[in-house]
Amino acid sequence: MTQFTHDTAPTQYAEGGGIRFAYRRFGMPERPPLVFFQHFMGTLDDHDPALSDAFASDREVILFDNAGVASSSGTVPGTIEAMARDAITFIDALGLNTVDLVGHSMGGLVAQEVALARPDLVRRVVLVGTGPRGGEGLGALPAWVAELFTRKYERQEDMWLPILFAPTESSQAAGRAYIERIMARADRDAPFSDQSVAAQRVALAAYGAAKDPAYAHLKGLRLPVLVVNGSNDIVIPTINSYILQQFLPDAELILYPDANHGAHFQYPGLFARHARIFLDDQPAP
Amino acid sequence: MTQFTHDTAPTQYAEGGGIRFAYRRFGMPERPPLVFFQHFMGTLDDHDPALSDAFASDREVILFDNAGVASSSGTVPGTIEAMARDAITFIDALGLNTVDLVGHSMGGLVAQEVALARPDLVRRVVLVGTGPRGGEGLGALPAWVAELFTRKYERQEDMWLPILFAPTESSQAAGRAYIERIMARADRDAPFSDQSVAAQRVALAAYGAAKDPAYAHLKGLRLPVLVVNGSNDIVIPTINSYILQQFLPDAELILYPDANHGAHFQYPGLFARHARIFLDDQPAP
Asked: What is the value of pTM for the model shown?
């Protein structure tokens, strides 16, 4: 599989639970595969090639559309926990026994529920721009942030500039570079449907509303976790990353300056170095 | 200077401002020297050889007793700002034009004031187990923590086990390894005096009492800062590390799991990797 990159890996399909899952898989099969979990309104084409290709040099990278999203069949369920069950169905359909996960935003919520449900399957998790079940402001966007998700642009990908990057010259420049990267691939994923977006909104609101100030469920996530975010995440407030670190049994936190909800896209080289140190070099607990 | 290590570098002396400063300097002179700022009740012998020697492979490491501490002459002043002036006198006495700083605990407070007073001198700062001027609970230890600093031990260095490491088997084992490392050097620094400890207590209390909920002075620290701490710092509560990241103009935060006030001594290899990425590889702003 080593000949493929983020931009050239073919879209493949795997059948499981009555769903036909679209995915792309590439990289060197040396370590547990790294499965990326996508954010609200995201498709295969919103993953950052700079990250995929950095990780693919010494492990397999797997990008997928969960049930009901873009090129995958089925419908998006209305809970994060059900999305996690769909994701497990996909991973099982590939016949994988051990995986590492990178979950961004909503994908980070789903990744946590996958690890809670299947501790045998998941070795390590990287959570970017996300928070715990019941987190502060999670799934309850301020009106001015919610509005950013409804804007129309000449180049629609530009909608991510104010959502994922900070309103500084340096961060916006990094954002434009990210948009160029995700638009480079020729054959594109299908667009997301109105149903998928509506269901994701419902799931996010329900997950954020499940309050437990003690975050007791996080004690069940016993695997090593790396939590990463920007200094001022306007979508899932940065304090949630701190909360994850404080309440998870074995979590490291890294916060980057001058950054928002897409900090790993802003600093892809730095993030890849930090994530690889975490994934490869720390002893298991 | 490359033949020396943490354990073999001779103690030298530099004169400045009427003070005779004790210091040790070793390592490869390839990059700006890395000057370590010591914690409350700390001497030259409380720095971790595992860290010094890791950094010394490609830069000079400078350890020093500030005015009034252990083998240095003079008296310890009653404010952090005055300690910073003494530290600047020492750095100037060595004729250095550009330095990087690592400050731990009280040393992190002094390092911040050095960088505020002399932005021309300081390139980058690593702050471990510390907080901002006016930080939460800073210099106002709970009674059970204050008591830990007064205990007598058969091997007095063991006092640091409950202060710097978490009360878990894994953290205490790392702590015992740290104690063995700091005791390996044959010729020891002088002990700290009662005056030095009393003045340091006064300085810490005054610094913590200087409240400003907006932490406006941190905006003056425009250089890149790496903030590091353990997940549960009992001496300077971990939330202060988060506050530093949130209020400094250009700060990265790393929090380690299962760790207390001496997280960098618990994970010396990991900390050295993270600190070197920060010191060497990120572009200046």
From this structure: 0.97
